[in-house]
Amino acid sequence: MEFRDEQPMQHEIGSRTYLVADVEPLDVDGVRTVLVGSIAWAVAFVALLPFYGELEETGRTWWLWTCLAGFGLGLFGYEYCRRRRRTRTEAAETSPPAQP
Asked: Would you kindly state where each structural domain of the chain is located, as residue ranges?
């Protein structure tokens, strides 16, 4: 299985030509992004806990449970991204280097 992602180096839109910079993406596997998002949901859950009574009075306890669900789904996403990163790393180590 090959994980190369060939991208064009220029785009022509109308009468203009746009060049694409050859830079590596910052977070290819998404592990850090999912982890930060999960932590943000957990912080939001903890921040809303002192207001549980007020949320219950106004019928907005779903805010609290939405934060908890976001954190839980983030944990699944974190594990998925970690496995994907590990699989890609193992595939890169076992496959021969790409020929230019």
From this structure: 27-94
